[in-house]
Amino acid sequence: MTEREPENGMNRPERGILIAFEGSDGAGKTTALEAMYADLKQKGYPVIKTREPGGSPTAEKIRALLLDPQNSIDPRTEALLYAASRREHIRQTILPALERGEIVLSDRFLDSSLAYQGYGRLLGEKVIEHLNDFALEGLRPDATLFYRLDEQSAKERRELRGDLNRLDAETRDFFDRVNGGFEQLLASHPDRYLVIDASRTREEVAAQTISLVEDLLRGAGYGR
Ligand code: TYD
After folding, report:
1. Ligand 1, atom 19: nearest CA belongs to which residue?
2. Domain 17-220 is in which class?
């Protein structure tokens, strides 16, 4: 592992690390990501937080299209737009940050497309994987945290949150397929995911996230 000169006493590797936060809508990954980001910032780590769809100026415009409840979008168009947003996101935001040796925390990434478009929209995991190979040119997260929550609890949390986006209005069947898709991905590639029980309190979920990510960062060469 090559390292850069420490900045403010903090070692950082030559290349940064990309950590994706995944889970169904309402699982609490965004809250956990915010807690993680605040903790790393406060400890002086070189970290950025970003999100999908979106994460760069053009990708945020695609996000607005995708999430507007007024728009009706064909499933293949939807898959292409998520992949296009991801392409902009990596080119404009993620790859430059990784080249600076930074830690990138992304609220959703490729696995969301596999689960939502591949399984939820029934387009198939392989089709979505290929489409995203074109967008990503081999880039994959270094680690993925998966927030697991049963659909009933996730639905209650979505309803509490209010302000529903285009996908929040989907049927129970759709979300069951998405959750089934995530479970399928976890079962077929267990080494790719760190699974977090998202039914626990927000403090417990944040604490587990922080401890898992700190281990990852030590392994990647960050620290004092
Ligand atoms: P957002 O409001 O960010 O929801 P959440 O807080 O649950 O992440 O909206 C993102 C929505 O887009 C969410 O319903 C999941 C969906 N999505 C896909 O369908 N495919 C994708 O590739 C991504 C990144 C998100």
Report:
1. 116
2. alpha beta
